[in-house]
Amino acid sequence: MNKIKDEEIKNFIIKYIEKKGKLPKNTDFATFNYIETGYIDSIGIIKFIVEIEQKFNIQISEDDIMSEKFKTIKGLINIIKTK
Length: 83
Description:
Non-ribosomal Peptide Synthetase Peptidyl Carrier Protein, Chain A, mainly alpha
């Protein structure tokens, strides 16, 4: 896979998450949990994973989804970069 820049991944994730509503100002991307805060629900997470896989031509594993990293923007960026 081509090296994808953190900023490109972050912008994609934020744009998707903000379909539900604008993120709070000064959001800490390292700790902001977009699932617990309701930006993406259980049905939406499936669509989100499909979008990520298609956009970056990767496969997100069940282990990735179950990891704590998956729940934050920064953690998700790191998961995508390792694929």
